[in-house]
């Protein structure tokens, strides 16, 4: 069984929520103050702040206080870790499916005594 990192597990958990994915999509355009980030969501600011906390706790976003506002931005390193994991899994499954295809081709050849 492959080893998984706790931060990566937390990142995938955070991204399982549609509101948090929408926040990430908005932040992909650039950093925003929390009030502007929360604007399109139909929820109270404290509820929205909980979503930001989940994203920040797992390292997907970073926030900082600037004057009287709190600004958020993406933390690209955690996304790179998730992308690397997904790419490694994709390669592993491509290899496994390739081996299965080879095996099935050989089985078919053995059944007929010749290649199809």
What is the CATH level 1 assignment of the domain at 6-75?
Mainly Alpha
The gyration radius over C-alpha positions equals 22 Å
Q: List the total number of helices.
A: 5
Q: Average pLDDT, to the nearest integer?
A: 89
Features:
12% strand; alpha+beta; 3-stranded antiparallel beta sheet; 116 residues; 5 helices; Arc Repressor Mutant, subunit A
Task: Report on the architecture of this protein.
Helix content is 65%, strand content 12%. With 116 residues, the protein is an alpha+beta fold. It has a domain at 6-75: Arc Repressor Mutant, subunit A, CATH 1.10.10. It has a 3-stranded antiparallel β-sheet with strand order 1-3-2. α1 packs antiparallel against α4 (45-57) and α1 (6-15) crosses α5. The two termini are 37 Å apart.
